[in-house]
Amino acid sequence: MQYLPIFTDLTGKAVLLIGGGHVALRKARALLDAGAVLTVVSHQFETDFQHWAAQGKAVLVQGDFQPAQISGHWLVIAATDDDAVNAAVHQAATARQVWVNTVDDQDKCEFIFPSIINRAPIQIAISSGGTAPVLVRRLREQLETLLPQHLGPLATLVGKFRKNVQQKLDNFAARRQFYEQVFSSKVVSLLQSGQPQAAEDTLEQMLDGHQPLRGEVFVVGAGPGDPELLTLKALQLMQQADVVVYDYLVSEPIMQLVRRDAELICVGKKAGAHSVAQEETNALLIRLALEGKKVCRLKGGDPFIFGRGAEEIEVLLPHQIPFQVVPGITAAAGCAAYAGIPLTHRDYAQAVQFVTGHCQKDGKEPDWQSLSRPNQTLVIYMGLMKSAHIQAQLLAAGRSADTPVAILENGTRPEQRVFTGTLGQLAALIEQHQVQSPALLVIGEVVALQKKLAWYGAQTPRAQITPLN
């Protein structure tokens, strides 16, 4: 992160602007809107500068820039069309340890002006660090259409009640839950329809009658890794949670979308790595919910497809803990699609089976005869460690050694790798390429389409496989 985003209070603070043309004019408007006491140095001034001077909003100094003019100012902006003058301003400001911005010269900026979306008192600043201003402008245009105008009045209204809320609700979690109720209540629609007094009365009634909410558990599927595959509901609940209990399989970009002040608890769940016992995870969810917290149980993929989501919900029932389940894109669908492998195709596979590569201790073996039928796709979760056993059982059950297979490592993520071969080469492929978890095995004739349909990322060159002896 090249620039630290901060918001600074310029009310009543002296700011020096070098330049009086149209570029300087844009900066001046923003500074005056922020309450700065503005001094402008230039040989000529746009008409607006003259008006501001007459209104006492700005002091105009006609003439050359002098380094001594910097003294006493909090910020300096160089906005002339003379590179030598701008460089002199930058040098003089940095020598005095005063923050300086040189317009259109990123190398001579100790701070930059972001693009601003104003819903006062709500403000959103967007910046590319000076690298892509056109892209930033497009993002601002999109966000402007998404953010309603009533956000400002809503923020002002809840700010008016802030002290009363703090007095009535003595802990942060209770206050946050109250505000979440407000933001999904009639208060918002009243403001939207231009009824501020009715909105205020409603909010006051809500505060007077507020009862603490019970704890709740959100069992949320995070999908296979690409954050853009999250559902809207998943993102909303991740932002509401007081605590997020997550697995290793949840990608870091997705974890970055969790509410910043939420407590994060990792319970593992990764092949070959230490993880919290399931019974401990169950007990943790119960304890947190009974403490009145909103708990997001965030799982890779889909919680009801090899995710043990049902087991975790069952333990909540005796305690009457409310819960929600948010499905996620399971690895079979997401990773196969990103690898260019259709799980069904009328010419190759009329059925698909999902199976886990490992069972409970002393668990029964899968029905290998059923899994070995032709004209179906077999997707194996968590199959890396037992790939040799899986290969041997399928061959013994009659599946052809020439059946196409694919190994999908880190599917849907930037580091995705795809390796294709045949069933007879499955274990050797995994060893040859040192495939690591998370990875998925896809077995079936549809894999033959991967070369034609692959679309995502830099395609890994396909291994030249020689028959095994």
Automatic annotation (TrEMBL):
Q: What segment(s) does the record annotate as region Uroporphyrinogen-III C-methyltransferase?
A: 215-469
Q: Which gene encodes it?
A: cysG
Entry annotation: catalytic residues: D247 (proton acceptor), K269 (proton donor)
Domain named Siroheme synthase central: which ranges? Answer: 121-144
Give its E.C. classification number: 2.1.1.107, 1.3.1.76, 4.99.1.4
Q: In which pathway does it act?
A: Cofactor biosynthesis; adenosylcobalamin biosynthesis; sirohydrochlorin from precorrin-2: step 1/1; Cofactor biosynthesis; adenosylcobalamin biosynthesis; precorrin-2 from uroporphyrinogen III: step 1/1; Porphyrin-containing compound metabolism; siroheme biosynthesis; sirohydrochlorin from precorrin-2: step 1/1; Porphyrin-containing compound metabolism; siroheme biosynthesis; siroheme from sirohydrochlorin: step 1/1
Keywords on record: Cobalamin biosynthesis, Lyase, Methyltransferase, Multifunctional enzyme, NAD, Oxidoreductase, Phosphoprotein, Porphyrin biosynthesis, S-adenosyl-L-methionine, Transferase
Which reactions fall under this protein's catalytic activity? uroporphyrinogen III + 2 S-adenosyl-L-methionine = precorrin-2 + 2 S-adenosyl-L-homocysteine + H(+); siroheme + 2 H(+) = sirohydrochlorin + Fe(2+); precorrin-2 + NAD(+) = sirohydrochlorin + NADH + 2 H(+)
- Name assigned to this protein: Siroheme synthase
Q: Which domain of life is it from?
A: Bacteria
Task: Kindly indicate whether the keyword Nucleotide-binding belongs to this entry.
Answer: no
Q: State the residue spans of region: Precorrin-2 dehydrogenase / sirohydrochlorin ferrochelatase.
A: 1-203
* Tetrapyrrole methylase domain location: 217-427
Q: Which GO terms describe its biological process?
A: methylation
Q: Which family does it belong to?
A: In the N-terminal section; belongs to the precorrin-2 dehydrogenase / sirohydrochlorin ferrochelatase family.
Spell out the molecular function terms from Gene Ontology: precorrin-2 dehydrogenase activity; sirohydrochlorin ferrochelatase activity; uroporphyrin-III C-methyltransferase activity
